[in-house]
Amino acid sequence: MSITNEDKTEMLALYRTMVRIREFEETAAKLFLDGKLVGFLHLYSGEEAIAAGVCSCLNDDDYITSTHRGHGHCIAKGADVNRMMAELYGKADGYSKGKGGSMHIADISKGIIGANGIVGAGIPIAVGAAYAQKYRGGDSVTVAFFGDGASNRGTFHESLNMAAALNLPVVFVCENNQFAMSTPFTYHSKNKTISQRADAYNITGCRVDGNDPIAVRDAASAAIEKARNGGGPTLIECLTWRHHGHFIGDSAPYKDPDDEKTWRKKDPIPTFEKRLIKEKLASAQDLKNVRDDAKAEIEASVRFAEQSPYPEVSVMYEDLNY
């Protein structure tokens, strides 16, 4: 099969999204350790292929719901990294005017309904959004991102049941990074896979390599197309590994060193780089250009955040529902 310019463009776009996410996350980690950021910080490093692969299949009028580990989803769906970084700094130009922080980034104009600090809380929100989409007509869909720990919560099961019963245009994407905080998946679940839980609700379920952006994209593309055409929900389980602890202050002593070494060899970014070069979809210089651009973009976002003012005390009670 011949390689077209369209193939090259698509593959570089996937790579660019992953690199931008990684650069944002590692920069945020350094800023936090340098004392420039406060609050909690849950990093997405190592899981970039999932956000990149799924969001590459979505349109502007499609929705996503995210998690406490949501920076990657937001970037992949088109969020402004300047406003994201300003939010991490607690500045007025942030997405939540500096009052929400890392776990509460949203941009309705981009279809980002919002990250959520409560485990599993985004899943029923996605079902509600998908219900609204079906009610209004059209072919837009919603994707719910969540982790393996969230798959044990009642919100997960209630949401899958309702989505199945109403045949809603929603795709459930479980990012199985092997740990619910510090508890291994093999300990907190009797199921061999999370994807098999789809059988209980008579919907499609599949399991893919979450470190392969093409495998993720292909699975997501099929599920999203199915939802657009009235075929109802799908549960996709993406196997991956988070590079950091649950949050930036967690040294992750519960991780087996051999497992860590094995999974680090599967790092989605260098693995994809080798594949792109081998298949002549990009040159080493092409990839360096992408990395340089991402570095410059995130450095600029830091400058933007540092120059942004803090919110005034007078706005403390604005934007609240009570």
SSE order and pairing:
Blueprint: H1 5-33, H2 48-55, E1 63-65, H3 71-76, H4 81-88, E2 112-114, H5 122-136, E3 142-147, H6 154-165, E4 170-176, E5 179-180, E6 183-184, H7 185-188, E7 204-209, H8 213-228, E8 234-239, H9 257-264, H10 268-278, H11 284-307
Parallel strand pairs: 1-2, 1-3, 3-4, 4-8, 7-8
Antiparallel strand pairs: 5-6
SSE pattern: HHEHHEHEHEEEHEHEHHH
Instruction: Report mean pLDDT, rounded to a whole number.
Output: 95
Q: How many helical elements?
A: 11
Number of strands: 8
N→C terminal distance: 60 Å
- Overall morphology: globular
The biggest beta sheet is recorded as:
6 strands, parallel
Can you offer a commentary on this structure?
The protein contains eleven helices and eight strands. By secondary structure, the chain is of the alpha/beta class. The strands form two sheets. It has a six-stranded parallel sheet, sandwiched between helices. The chain has a two-stranded antiparallel sheet with strand order 5-6.
